Amino acid sequence: MDFVSIEKKWNEKWEKDNLYKFDENKLDKKYYLLEMFSYPSGLNLHLGHWWNFGLSDSFGRFKRMQGYNLFQPMGFDSFGLPAENYALKTGIHPEDSTLRNIATMEKQLRNIGGTFNWDYEVVTCKPEYYKWTQWLFVQLFKKGLAYQKQAPVNWCPSCNTVIANEQVVEGLCERCGNEVIKKNMTQWFFKITDYAERLLSGLDQIDWPQKTKILQKNWIGKSIGCEVDFKTEDKKHTLTVFTSRVDTIYGVSWLVIAPEHPLLPKLVTKEHKTEVDAYIKEAAKKDEIARSSTENVKTGVFTGTYVVNPLNGAKVPVYVADYVIASYATGIVMGVAAHDTRDFDFAKVYKTPVVQVIEGKNGEKVDLPFTDYGRLINSAEFTGLSSEEAKEKIADKLEKLGAGRRKTNYKLRDWSVSRQRYWGCPIPIIHCPYCGAVAVPEKDLPVILPKIHDYKPEGEGPLGKVDSYMNVKCPKCGADARRDPDTLDAFVCSSFYQLRYPDAHNSKEIFDSKKINKICPIDTYVGGVEHATAHLLYSRFITMFLHDIGKVDFDEPFKRLVHQGMVLDPKTNKKMSKRNGGKTADDYVNEFGSDALRLHMMFSMNYIDGGPWYDDGLKHMKAFMERIERIVLSWAKLGNENSTLNGSEESELEYARAFCIKEMTSSFEIFSFNTAIARLMELVNAMYKYDKVERKNEVLAKSVMLDVIKLIAPATPHFAEELWQLIGMPYSVHNQLYPVCDESKLKKAEIEIAVQVNSKIITRLSVPTDSTNEKVLALVKLDSKVKNALLGKSIVKEIVVPGRIVNIIVK
RNA sequence: GCUGGUGUGGCGGAACGGCAGACGCACAGGACUUAAAAUCCUGAGAGGGCAACUUCGUGUGGGUUCAAGUCCCACCACCAGCACCA
Length: 811
Description:
alpha+beta; seven-stranded mixed sheet; RNA-binding
């Protein structure tokens, strides 16, 4: 069979027939399968695309043949830095290059022979899509969840622009390698922190890989503790600290305030001003990234101020040190050297005291015995109170005193969405000198991104230079006003695309809720783990928000998540993108056909783990397909003779088929493609074995043969279709139902068990499958080897695991 | 440093606490062929033995169990994420 030429033929026919059409009238058995969409790079599809789209498409085909009404749309994440950088590199306007690249990639993705529903395509850089990105922004703005504030951003002095966190690699700009600095700028933020608790608790309800849940959990970083108010000696100022170890409060030896803390200038005494100012200046030079990458050498200076411990009245010095982060919790921490390694490091350098006092059961103070510096003390040993109990007691006491309160903090920060870039969704805000930031009225959406040619990033939104775009009237008061010059982070565009797909061409609203509630949430979402704390978190947040404003009736977008592993370059063991030893994906397709490529990818690696690419297997997969072809074509000629009924060869073949169907089905379900194909190979081997039987049951042989074609159809769609046609079956194999396992055929009359004496295997015996444990033991004891082993010994214990093992313990 | 994950033949990789190495590659032998390729069949973890057989084997060291690749403890190596989060 010429695998290459049949592919073109079938792709064209399937497309012409719209074979994989999603039926909107049959939503009771829908299956929404989605792969993370990609940005249109303009390059040829590489092996990673095949790995991602090809294999999950096979999963989709499997669901489809199980009778599901499959919805598997496709689109392009076409705004944002990758597209813009490509444009800057080539000098072609991003709009032109992006649209051209989309056309190229669309064509190639069609060549994969996937079941993608192109009728529902979304392209995030098109006004009919980004109208709804802007609409979403406006809704968030109306609810106070989109707001502006001044915040430090990553600034690359060489590229003269702000860059995203993801583009800062070890403190350097990913593109030019120059050092990135922090710069304060007014930015738009989404208040994702309001959803911290729901984003955390929602993880319990979804079928996601454990590691991804843990990544998100750590990213959200919930910390339960207390705020404690320390007043200055003159009672003019209150310094509030956050601690998760309020039980150690009697051991507080000092307080540390972050250099950027607004209260700091008021605390510094005259004598210490010069020293503190110098320290602040020094700290400002280093941004948070630089600070965290330096060794754990603690630096800091005394401010000259003392505060009072609200619980025991102790006088506590206040230091300023840059190991405290201004933006987390209150920006002030208490120093308890005996219970915290960071505090201990600080104590070593500054010779601050290490006090170890703790409150006992009846409120008495217990001096803990002296231990090595930095060793955390288990106070429960000395007080009879667990740390948790002690925390509760002290929290109660603080609340009674009015000097503190229980408090939960999160590491999660609000989502910075402004980009000083051209190629993005314009922010639908008008800044009015009288009314402030005003949302563009919904009837005026979308705010069209003007096609300009001077879009080089220079630190401010390039749109700011376009007066025809910028100058508008305030929608509220009619005064002269200016648009926001920035664009939105592309992650905003991709945060709701999965909900837009089923109603992709709705021009009246973001989507029709009734329809979306029937088709969404996504049954299975396939994509890389690298999006764990960005896209996958943002999408959950936005879905929860849309739920809260009544647009959807669910609040988790992806019921099940599967991460495909990475195909690695065999030489570097890094992610492989374009080619391997000069060969592109296209080369493989042209030489072996896309079916062989898919099959090789399925069989040679574990989909979840990925691994280094090697191409030896391609020719073997082609050979395997030809092995199938030979037996199928030879059995196609068989008549309808029932020459034998239920002979042992027949039951073996029946068993092989039933086992294969059962195992393939469960393997496909969990994306374990390699074992699924292994089981299919076993069935094909069994067919060859049966082929040697002289007087075959031709009816049985034929039905097994048909099942094999159906079973392989999801993995090699073109090949299966061609075989189906060659044996004269009516088009199309992809409209057949996936074979269902006949459980009754899985019962064998006899089953081999291992026989152990003292846990050591003595022999293997066949016993009737239905025998009781007693019968099995009796049979086993008749065996001469077993008799020998038991000779002169007394039996202590007998263990029978039905169908598996017999273990006789003797003395 | 913290948090996860991984570690199995020459290779890719299988194994609900129950016969380790499924399936495949590479390898060896056989059939077919003038021959090669392709195909079909058979063999095979490693060591020892002509053989029946036997010893050792899932990163290392302990433990639990009738039984451990699988569970527990400690350690090593690699990969990933977070990185002074109080």
